[in-house]
Amino acid sequence: MSTDSTLRFGAQTDEVTSLLRIVNLVRTGEATTRPEIGRVTGLGRGVVTQRVDQAIQMGFLGEGDFGASSGGRAPRTLRFRAEQGHIIVCALGAAHIRVGVTALDGDILGHTHRAWDIAKGPAKTLGAAMDMVDELMKDFPKLPVWSVVVGLPGPVDFATGQPVAPPIMPGWNGADVRTPFEERFNAPVWVDNDVNLLAFGERARRREALADLIYCKIGSGIGAGLLSQGRIHRGANGAAGDIGHVRVPDSRETCRCGKVGCLEAVAGGWALVRDAGQAIAGGAASSMEGRANKGALTLEDITTAAEGGDPLAISLVQKAARVMGESIAALVNMFNPGVIVIGGAIAAAGEVFLAEVRQRVYELSLPLATRDLTIVLSVNDEREPLRGGAELAREQLFDITFPRWFADGRPSPERIAA
């Protein structure tokens, strides 16, 4: 890729601004022919031709097929060259690692998964994730990595990429997650809470650029990703949406974080497993008895049993849903979303869980806040955090940091940090 001397790093001229906009218009599909670009930007034909030629020379755009004719000669379409680099996403959970590689348009090219205990610590966990990426990348052309995104199951300071006092991640507080990936792949790295990746995934799937949406993940733990006008709200220190440790009135259950009465200690997956085991040990009849007696009961077992009509499982899921509904109602009154998506392992319980959540939310929320509210289950696609991670990378690369690095033809950690 060659770069015109007038497009050097830092030269934020009108020429540069219009060039960046044209690349993004084509990338997002808002304008894909030269005449469309002229109409959207107001630039003259000669200027549009010059900017498009520059973008093609720099490697961002390429010629596509001929478009529809409006009476004269059919215009040649333009396309964003999504095949020129890769985005890597590592989604870490409490008990698994999922990695994927995508094209620059977010198309998932490949992914893999393995069971893993996040409590093994950052060194072993990040090493295992990078080994999985290396193995996965063997199946694809040796193209440069443009970005790496890492999702973590706990609070993250997005500015530094460091986890902050994560309750279920011993040894991770303040860990440098970013540097090992930067050094391995020579690419900018962004680290975020895993539920934020899921919220990004919903935005990408729905193609709603200005969505007001809450993604509630209920698995072993509980968290929420908040989209306001299409932008993730992380809060001042990355703690926004950490509803798993909101206090539940009258609860005396001890949480894994060490506090008493947290929502997670009442409605989280590990809490349901605890309560199911105690009930069965106390003589409650259940199809889960065999698994519970072996100490192998999981949240997935409970949701499956609830779907199958097991009375104990249904009662546990509905109790969790009522408490979750109360917490979600508070979010609805404060945040006024248009959509709430329920995801995580609990989503497998289907309407048994969702119906109870809906009832509590509508009972406890303001009528205006629920007038146009939709509450749905997630699509339950294991690739959602990978899709969301790619969406986060694309936002950071092309909507936020593009002016810093585009003159080089591809991003680098140094340019992103500039």
Automatic annotation (TrEMBL):
Pfam families: ROK. It comes from Pseudarthrobacter enclensis. SUPFAM superfamilies: Actin-like ATPase domain, Winged helix' DNA-binding domain. Belongs to the ROK (NagC/XylR) family. It comes from the Bacteria. This is Transcriptional regulator. InterPro entries: ATPase_NBD, ROK, ROK_cs, WH-like_DNA-bd_sf, WH_DNA-bd_sf.
